[in-house]
Amino acid sequence: MLGSTFVLGLASGSQTLPLVNQDAYSSEYRLRASSKLYRVLVRHSSVNRTGSDGVVQSYDRHNVEASITTFATSTVPEFTTKAYFVMEQLPVDTNVEVQDALSDWSIASTNANLVKILGWES
């Protein structure tokens, strides 16, 4: 288990989300504030992949999703912002080099690459 709380380090200020649900393969962390709902889901599953040689292998799939729902006001409707990442690899593969490189790339130059993606650059 990751822990009984999940600290979501936001530029606007970190939020500590308590664990509200946990089963064998997933956890949910949630914090309701006066104007926002913060939520983090961590899920694990297995998927089968067929290689170019026709051999089917079982891969572990790990998904972490964070969302913030901003509640409606008299002038702005409710909206949700969500981001997530997925890692898929063989159960014996503990190398996180690709995930680390992609995370570094996404926040490089003060989040410039993320802003470019939001501008539909590819």
Question: Would you kindly provide a written description of the structure presented here, covering whatever features stand out?
Answer:
This protein has 122 residues and is an alpha+beta fold. It has two domains: 5-91, Porin (Beta Barrel), CATH 2.40.160.220; 94-122, no CATH class. The chain is 18% helix and 50% strand. It has one helix and six strands; from the N terminus they run ββββββα. The chain has one helix spanning 97-118; strands at 5-8, 15-23, 26-32, 36-50, 56-70, 79-89. Strands 1-2-3-4-5-6 form a six-stranded antiparallel β-sheet, with no helix packed on it. β5 (56-70) and β6 (79-89) form a beta hairpin. The longest helix has 22 residues, at 97-118. The model has no long low-confidence stretch (mean pLDDT 95).
